[in-house]
Each structure stands twice: as C-alpha cells, then as structure tokens.
Design brief:
Length: 414
C-alpha cells in the first residue's frame, strides 16, 4: 500500500548505510593500524541494481535489463524519428504543397509496427511470468526458517530451536522463510537476493532463495553496521520505528552454519547463572532497545532507567518504581481501576511479586498499561524462556552496571 514510499525510504537508508560504511573506511589510518580491521562490505552492483547474490537474481536482472534497454532503444528511436520528420516536412513559405499521389497507407509498415511490439510484450510477459513462478515455488528440500515480524524487530527461528535477530543462512542450499506477523503489515526485502514479500498478521507467507556465496561469520556485536552481510529491510511502513527493522543476512558455508546453529541454540543454557544478567542480558536487550531506553530518555515504551519526562518522570528506574509500587497504571485488559502498580502487586493480589509482574508484562504486555502508553508492545510468549526472563530482570535490577546502549560495564566500585 505504502510500498513506493517505503522503497524510497529504503533507498535513502541504504545510502546512509553506504555513507556510514564509507565514513568508517576512511577513518584515520592510525586508528586502523591500532585496531583489528573490521571487514567491510563492498558495495558492488551497478547504477540500477545492487550486487546479485542469489540464484534467483540473474533472471530478475535479465528481465530488468531487457526492459530497460528496450525502453532506451524505443525512446531514443521514436524521439529521433519524431524530430527528424517534424523538421523534414515543416511548412516552408506560405504556399501549401499538396501531393495527390502521396501514400496514405502502407500495409507492411503497419503490420510491422503492430506485430513487433506485440511479440516484444509477449516476450516480456513470459519473462516476468516464469520469474514469478520460480520466485513463488520454494523447492521441496528447502531449509526452513520461521520468521516473526513485530513492531519493531525480526525474530528468526531455526529448526533446532536457535533464534537470532539477524538472518543467518547456509550457502548453496535453498532456504524457505515461513513468515508471520505479530501485529501489523510488514514486508521482508533483501535487495541483493531480489526477493520481497509481505508479512501479514493472521496469515503465513513464504519466501525462498538460495545464496551460493558465503559472506562470512556473524559478528559478536550484532549492532555493528560495518559487518559484512546483505542488507535486509522491512519495506512496509509499520510505524514510528519502522527503520529499526533494518538487519543483515549472513551466509555461512555448510560447516560454519552447522556450528553457528548449534552454538546459537545452546548459548543461553551455557551462560553460567551468575553471569546471566551481564552476559545474556545485553544480548536479549537488543530486541527491547528499539522501544525501551536505559538512560532514561523517552521512547515508544517506558524507559528501563529513571525517565525524565512523562507519567513516570522522577519515579526511579523500572525496577525501583515497580518494587516501590509507584508506577501509575491506566488501562489494559487486567486493569480494574487501580491507579498505581502497588494495587496489583503483593500477596493475594494479581501478581505476587514485582518479578511476576515484569514476566507477565513481557508475555502479555497489554495486561496493565503504564499511564501515557498504549498497547503497542508485541508479546514475547514462546520467544523468551524463563532463563531469558531471569536475565532481563537481573539486568533491570542492576541497571547501573550497563551503559546507555545496554553494554555491561562492570560493577561500580570494583
Ligand atoms: Cu516492519 Cu516496517
């Protein structure tokens, strides 16, 4: 619906990313020597199209280039003939010359300018139709990844239970994305692969591709903008932080992919209990960070820190204002008219402990709404297990040990 404008927006953000890449690559040479060199994504491709990195891309590009060149030929050809004939048969002087024997009809010419364009558009139709059928028919042996779009993040879930925020796929193998939305219309677009598909609430949609060229490993810091990988966009305007749904696609060779998938499925279990909040917390917080700040700045959702504006201004961090019972409540499916969270937390009340309330708010965010905030948060039921919730609550309780971006900076005073 708003696809055109979002495509333009993506073009713009693409440029910004490219500029960022360019900016970091021209960083002072001294710094580059001192620090490990970050692998840069080469911006290849031509004026019209980005690099072609899937097996589907050549057919799409061929159709695009064929139509573009046909347009060049006919545009310049017709313009030339038009200008030339206008000049040649212009009226000279005031006498009108009329040749009674001049041709008024030419059958071969008329058949020619009807049949040739007809054949061309039929050829274009078949090019497009074949490409469309190829794009919409995933191979039977494809590797399946479940995709959940939500305002404003992607969640990719692999057959062995691993999950990730960036898309990671095996090279040289067809990959099928089974996509659904938690809330509104989104659209998944990977320009380098020439694939794009709407992600629709209440309906599954498919997308498939095969990328043969590995891009290399997934960077530890998932937010790194310089990380090599193909861009992945949400290309349907889906609200305030639509642009936060820009991620990366990493293509790994079979061996690396297996290893990554294994590690990714187990990582949370392998973090020692005492490091859960400091190691697992920041990784999990990345998905919260689009809406919830740590430094107290206002966002789509209440800050985890001591927010400086709005209904919760000056009430302390999320943990403080929740455990003190001061958070003002206004609305929600479980709201029964109470004005602060203290009326809902405690023995015999809706939630026994503040932890129960936070856990419930992650699984069913619309239950109780903080004053001034709407039911905007997607639910994370089935996406975060108890261990993940423990990690997040642990982080909220010891927020002073993290910087504004949610990175662990260690215990104060140690
Ligand atoms: Cu999701 Cu735009």
């Amino acid at each position: 619906m708003i696809d055109l404008s979002s495509t333009l927006a993506n073009l713009a953000s693409n440029t910004v990313l490219a500029l960022q890449d360019a900016a970091t690559s021209t960083a002072p040479a001294a710094a580059a020597l001192a620090e490990p060199v970050v692998e840069q994504r080469e911006l290849t491709g031509d004026f019209w199209l980005p690099q072609a990195s899937s097996t589907l891309a050549p057919a799409t590009d061929f159709a695009f280039n064929a139509i573009t060149w046909l347009s060049y030929v006919f545009f310049f050809g017709i313009t030339f003939v038009l200008v030339y004939l206008t000049w040649k048969y212009r009226q000279r002087g005031t006498t009108v010359r009329y040749d009674a024997d001049a041709p008024v009809h030419n059958t071969p010419l008329e058949v020619g300018w009807t049949v040739i364009p007809l054949l061309l558009v039929i050829a274009i139709f078949f090019m497009g139709f074949k490409g469309y059928l190829d794009l919409s028919t995933p191979p039977k042996n494809a590797y399946e990844i479940n995709v959940t779009a939500a305002q404003w993040s992607w969640n990719f879930k692999y057959p062995n239970g691993a999950t990730s925020n960036d898309l990671v796929v095996p090279a040289g193998q067809p990959v099928k994305l089974v996509m659904r939305s938690n809330d509104v219309l989104h659209s998944l677009f990977i320009p380098d692969f020439r694939v794009k598909q709407d992600v629709i609430p209440g309906r599954y949609s498919y997308l498939w591709f095969q990328a043969d060229e590995p891009t290399g490993i997934v960077p530890e810091d998932e937010m790194a903008t310089t990380a090599k990988g193909h861009y992945l966009f949400c290309t349907e305007y889906c609200g305030t932080d639509h642009s936060n749904m820009n991620r990366k696609v990493f293509v790994l060779n079979e061996e690396d992919f297996k290893e990554w998938e294994e590690t990714q499925a187990r990582w949370l279990d392998e973090v020692p209990d005492e490091e859960l909040y400091s190691v697992a917390g920041p990784k999990l917080y990345l998905r919260c960070s689009n809406c919830h700040s740590i430094d107290g700045s206002a966002g789509t959702g209440p800050s985890w820190g001591d927010q400086t504006s709005g209904s919760i201004a000056g009430l302390g961090s999320l943990w403080t204002r929740t455990s003190d019972g001061k958070t003002p409540i206004d609305g929600g499916t479980r709201d029964d008219g109470g004005s602060t969270i203290s009326e809902y937390i405690g023995p015999g009340k809706l939630y026994e402990t503040p932890e129960d309330y936070i856990r419930a708010s992650i699984y069913n965010p619309g239950g109780l709404l903080v004053s001034g905030y709407g039911p905007n948060m997607p639910h994370f039921k089935g996406q975060l297990n108890d261990r993940a919730i423990d990690a997040l609550i642990g982080m909220m309780k010891q927020l002073d040990q993290f910087d504004a971006k949610g990175r662990f900076i260690g215990k104060a005073g140690n």
